[in-house]
Design brief:
The structure is a single chain. By secondary structure, this protein is an alpha+beta fold. The chain has a domain of 82 residues: Nuclear Transport Factor 2, Chain: A (Roll), CATH 3.10.450. The chain has a five-stranded antiparallel β-sheet with strand order 1-2-3-4-5, covered by helices on one side. The longest helix has 18 residues.
Length: 128
């Protein structure tokens, strides 16, 4: 990889999960959401004056809401079939792309520099 270029995607490692966990509170504050599941699945890096790390994170809805979903789906089935289709993927396959910056000091001072919500597993991590 050349200076400034983004690397190929790699499967997330325990170190990448640790980085994602460190910026999780920053993301939750910006999105005003709490993520029950926050699992890094893949990442890309970019060498700049420091390092940008692009991480694809698998998230889900809170468990209590997931338990209510089948009841809501059954209710909608009887009253309006067209409302079921958009709801079927709620809490399943929800991904977020996060951009994390670590400065040139090498002190593991990770900062959330951006995020993209409503992603799918198949969407490629790209520069943003």
């Amino acid at each position: 990889m050349s200076l400034g270029g983004v690397s190929e995607a790699s499967r997330a490692t325990p170190e990448i999960q640790m980085i994602a966990n460190k910026v999780r509170p920053q993301l939750e504050a910006k999105t005003n959401k709490k993520y029950e599941k926050f699992e890094a699945v893949e990442y890309k890096t970019q060498v700049v004056a420091g390092e940008n790390i692009f991480i694809k994170v698998d998230t889900t809805l809170p468990q209590a809401l997931m338990q209510l979903f089948p009841v809501a789906q059954l209710y909608l089935h009887f009253y309006h079939w067209s409302l079921i289709t958009p709801l079927m993927d709620v809490g399943h396959g929800c991904f977020i792309h996060i951009k994390v910056f670590n400065g040139p000091t090498g002190k593991d001072n990770y900062e959330l520099h951006g995020y993209q919500t409503d992603k799918t597993m198949d969407e490629e991590l790209t520069y943003f």
